[in-house]
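WARN retry 2 of 3 for item q-0093 after timeout on previous attempt; input resubmitted unchanged.
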Amino acid sequence: MSNQSKVIFIGIAVIILVFWAVITVIPLYWMIIGSFQDSLASAVFKPQMIPDIWSVAPYERFFTKNNAVQWLLNSLFVSSVLTVTNLLFASMAGYAFAKLKFPGSNSIFWVLLGTMMIPAQVTLIPLYVLVINVFDLADTYTAMIVPTLVSVGNIFLMKQYMSTLPTSLIHAARIDACSEFGIFYKIILPMAKPGLAVLAIFTFVANWNDFFWPFLVTRSSEMRTIQVGLASFKFAESTDYGAIMAGATIGALPMIILFFSLQKYFLQGITIGAVKG
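OK item q-0093 returned
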């Protein structure tokens, strides 16, 4: 390929990427702008991309809504706990499957992968009956947390990542009489920071945005998460789009902060194995 062809190819690629980035950012921009307009202006078919009148009334309506702050705290608590438990259990299981040899390890791992082939809708009703009717955990944090303490997908992610870590360091630590827990805590976890960062971001975002399961297991307004709570701004004859967009904007802040806080490790994690030297 000649230099001129390379320049043309790069130029076309840049134009496509810029165009795609603009399309991706427009809904986010509209959400933020809509949170500073009245409900009618933000709900019209052709919304004002630059408002004539700026207002913080949607934020006032959102925070004056009963339990709005509690919804944010519930989402933060549930998402944080599930992120920590997934980081802990998925990293431990990933280390065991990747670096430890024990009877039936391959069989157990393939059985776990097989469960990923089962659609979530198939197990939803049995899980709901078990949590609500059998254990009577309706309207509790336990009902929102326990079913997803760790996911098979996260175990698979950590297993694949830890398979790339050098085994020689583990053997050297064992020669120095380091315990398996010491190897995991002092050697594996520091080297696995990029993978853990990717796992933390994906897990937190997934649980923060989760709507259906919290909607099923919560009954009182005090136990709702932010995603479920925003649905209460939709009334029989109207919808308060301004307050919804204000709540969505506030709800997006933790994910943005988390991403930029772990951006360094996140970029390392998603490029692991892309280049071998």
